[in-house]
Amino acid sequence: MKNKLHVSGMRCGGCEMLVKEALEEVEGVRGAEVSHIEGTVVVDYEPETVSIALIAAVIEEQGFKVNE
Question: Which of 45, 48, 62, 65 is least crowded, fewest Cβ atoms below 10 Å from its Cβ?
Fold first, then answer.
């Protein structure tokens, strides 16, 4: 399943890599496409293994804000 999250605070490619690497370490996350220009994270995940709330928390742990 894929879900698009709107994320504020990412300013560069380094921010993208930080979010991508953190998400890809989470069990149940298959991959993530991150764009600081668009302010989005498209995450491909297994909903039976990981919740979107946990995914959002991982992004926020990196210092960024997930917008509803």
Answer: 48
Does domain 2-67 fall under CATH 3.30.70.100? My reply is: yes
Vertex 24 angle, CA 16 and 29, to 5°: 120
- Tokens, residue 28: 């149940």
pLDDT in tens, the chain (68 residues): 999 999 999 999 999 999 999 999 999 999 999 999 999 999 999 999 999 999 999 999 999 999 97
Q: How is the chain split into domains, by residue range?
A: 2-67
Q: How far apart are CA 31 and CA 42, in angstroms?
A: 8
d(CA 57, CA 4): 15
Q: Which amino acid is at 66?
A: V
